Amino acid sequence: MAEKFYITTAIDYPSGKPHMGHAYEKITADCIARWHRLLGEEVFFLTGTDEHGSKIQKKAKEAGKEPKKFVDEMVVFFKELCKRLNTSHDRFIRTTDSDHVKVSQGIFKKIHDKGEIYLGKYSGWYCSECETFYTERDLKEGNCPTHGKKAEWISEESYFFKMGAYTQKVLDYLQKNPSSVLPAGKRMEIINRVKEGLNDLSVSRVNVPWGIPVPIDEKHTQYVWMDALINYVSGVGAFPPESKGRLRKFWPADVHLIGKDILWHHSAIWFSILMAADMPLPKTVFVHGFINTEAGEKMSKSRGTVIDPIELVDRYGADPLRYFLLREIPFGQDGNFSEESLKERLNNELANELGNLVNRTIVMIEKYSGGKIPKGSVDKALQKKLKLDKIGKMMLKLELHHALREIFSFIAACNQFINRKEPWSLFQKKAREECKKELDSVLYSLADSIRIISILLSPFIPETSEKINKQLGVKPGLLRGCRFGLLKPGTKVKKKEILFKKIG
Ligand code: ME8
Question: Among 201, 226, 305, 483, which residue carries the largest CB count within 10 Å?
Answer without folding.
Answer: 226
